[in-house]
Amino acid sequence: MDSLTDLVFSTVNAPLTVLLIALAAYRIFTMVLGLDLDFDLDFDIDVDVDTDIGIDSTGVDLEDVTNIELKKDTVVGEKRKPLKWWQVILLYFNFVELPFLFTFTSWVFFWWSITVITTYLTNSYENSFGVIIFLLAMIPSLILNKFFTTPFKFFFKKLERKGVKALDLIGRKGVLISNISNKKLGSAKLFVENDPINIYVKSLNGNEIKSGEEILIIKQSSDKKYYYIQLYK
Q1: How many angstroms separate the CA atoms of 115 and 122, rounded?
Q2: pTM of the model
């Protein structure tokens, strides 16, 4: 047991071991214990297309971050220009159209497994050669992760079709979980029969609505990808 502990917490393997433990604990806390911690995530996705759509995720809580899913339309836009290298990577290795942390966690697991096994076989978990293995293992782990996660794409798409798309959300109240204004795309959380649902939303009149404010769903977009909302009074 001591030798196994020394291996997984060695100089080379410790970073991925700690990250994997943190991801596992993170998932357990949000799923089993139902924690709802505040977690400020502020980022902009540059899709490099001729649109005014942006995403502001300020005020996303811990549960929302766990279930973040990058949509293909958000990443690649309208395909008016060639994809950037990071867009190609996200698409090819299934970081798009699947819950991001699901894909990320499975990738870290494969990366960790390859690194631990290879450094053990070469007795290099405490030297510079092990660091090289650590870096090179990223590539085969991405490939393995692609094969592992591909079958889940059908499952999640089918689950989505039977989920939000089958519900009539017009007229329901919810809470905005990201700041929106003008044509900016954001997210909102609402409860349907005590089940939490996250949806993409835009301000109906372009007015600013802040994270945490109660909103009313007015109508669905013509492409059925998001909803128009207004502040609930």
Answers
A1: 11
A2: 0.58
